[in-house]
Write a structure and sequence with these properties.
alpha+beta; about 100 residues; GIY-YIG endonuclease; globular; four-stranded antiparallel sheet; 5 helices
């Protein structure tokens, strides 16, 4: 399984990433280990907003690319609405996970 996730940072920016192990990756971001993203090391991850699960790397990469190209306003709307129809069209999947920290 692959996961695409959106993190809210302390400065209210949104970071989007991809991983095969969501729990490990969240520990890396929130504890600022040497493996956390350079972006979250300086913008300080605060909250996991959304997680989508896909069954292969291709779909996960497509979704990550799609989200990263959205405007900040569109990302905020995606977080609020959890608009799975838009997402599922991009990744050919209807499997959505809401992950709680």
């Amino acid at each position: 399984m692959y996961y695409v996730y959106m993190l809210r940072c302390k400065d209210n920016s949104i970071y989007t990433g991809i991983t095969t192990d969501i729990n490990r990756r969240m520990r890396e971001h929130f504890k600022k280990t040497e493996k956390c993203a350079k972006y979250t090391r300086y913008h300080i991850a605060q909250k996991l907003e959304c997680v989508w699960q896909t069954d292969n790397r291709i779909n996960a990469s497509r979704l990550e690319y799609y989200i990263k190209r959205l405007t900040k306003e569109e990302k905020e709307r995606l977080i609020i609405d959890k608009n799975i129809e838009i997402v599922s069209k991009k990744i050919n999947s209807k499997n959505y996970i809401e992950y709680k920290i």
